[in-house]
Amino acid sequence: MKYLNPTCVEISIIYCFCYTPFSSQFACNLFRTLPPPTNPHGAEYDPEEDEPTLEAAWPHLQLVYEFFLRFLESPDFTPSTAKRSIDQQFVIQLLELFDSEDPRERDLLKTTLHRIYGKFLGLRAYIRKQINNIFYQVLYESERHNGIAELLEILGSIINGFALPLKEEHKQFLQRVLLPLHKVKSMSVYHPQLAYCVVQFLEKDSVLTEVVIKGLLKFWPKTHSPKEVMFLNELEEILDVIEPHEFRKIMRPLFQQLARCVSSPHFQVAERALYFWNNDYIMTLISDNADVILPIMFGALYKNSKSHWNKTIHGLIYNALKLFMEMNQRLFDECTVRYKDERQRERQKIKEREEAWVALEQAAIQNADKTKSGNAIDLIHPSTGNSQFSSPIADNEEEEDGIDPTTLADTINALPDKGAPAEDEEPVDAAVQRDLTRRKSFLPVDFETRKALLQHHQHKVEPST
């Protein structure tokens, strides 16, 4: 592409017949099936601690990448001629290489794709769509991809060039892709690039602030403290560019979450949340809306100023309380009195609850004693007389069943005593014991039919031989 003429003048030459061979050379040498991943993914992978897997053929690949980049960056490069060979299929194969584990290759891929995006206007929408598909795959299928950080870095520069007003397509990309990417386990690998993209959107259109803040609060981590610190870092970057009228829309849920962070037993989370009070612009926003923010934050600050285990947190909390006191002394005193009254009411509720449980326990013990005494009396003196099949049934239950216990006992006693019981007949003692424990489990018995069956078995005549 470049050579030196005899007079040492550098000349750049790209003929029209060079485009297809150059693109084919790039495709033949670089488009390949990537090997299976070897690095741990998700929260287990730390790019600062874990060594990346390097491509063995990198010296050769690097030469091809640099050759193709010089081809794209040449002042004689003509996109209208190159679009015959650099098409949608070429872009798809190029994007597949972003999953390479070698960071050197991903860096050159990022530069190559960015040059193609800038020169080929007809491929821009297609490139954005295919990048979105990769993000959707990470969100809803694999949860892993090695090139998310590089793709987000490309998108950061693309978002910076969006024209105003923003298209609905771009707003949907923010809500459906960028915000859900906060819930992926491996967010720590690409969080700086993700936060940059979000802030770029807010600088373009401040109306999206409420959507972004509510999205962050929706995906706020509950048990992962390092990830919570990253969310707080991103939140401060957003507050640095927020408009005052947009801040008033989201300040209540925002500072409710900050109050929970201040109360976190993990000192790094509490420390990062309290650093917000060192930001001058954020303090200006808080001062303008102290009548809403101070009542939300006061309880968490006052409680943890005495109960938090880390002394550094105590100092930061005292600093925040001092700033609030200087903002509005009267409101601070009112919050102090209100907090003490609430604490007193909570103690009273706890005391009443404990007393109610004690009374309930005593009542349960008394009822248990009465029940045991009643069962013992029923076993010794059955209400149905001396019948073998009688059971301790309450009077109201007897009336509901429509059975007179006296008639029932007389009917059973009238059964004949002679003759052996049938083979399938249950012993009387077992029936009595079972009737005492599981009375409701048996079907009613027709005693007339049973009497007739017993008489039939006793007086049955043997057939003649």
Descriptive notes:
The protein has 465 residues and is mainly alpha-helical. It is built from 21 helices and two strands. It has helices at residues 19-30, 58-73, 79-82, 88-96, 103-119, 124-142, 148-160, 168-178, 187-204, 209-218, 225-240, 244-262, 267-274, 280-288, 290-307, 311-327, 329-380, 395-401, 405-413, 428-437, 447-458, and strands at residues 2-4, 10-12. Strands 1-2 form a two-stranded antiparallel sheet. The longest helix is centred in the last third of the chain and has 52 residues, at 329-380. The radius of gyration is 41 Å and the shape is flat. The relative contact order is 0.04.
Topology:
Layout: E1 2-4, E2 10-12, H1 19-30, H2 58-73, H3 79-82, H4 88-96, H5 103-119, H6 124-142, H7 148-160, H8 168-178, H9 187-204, H10 209-218, H11 225-240, H12 244-262, H13 267-274, H14 280-288, H15 290-307, H16 311-327, H17 329-380, H18 395-401, H19 405-413, H20 428-437, H21 447-458
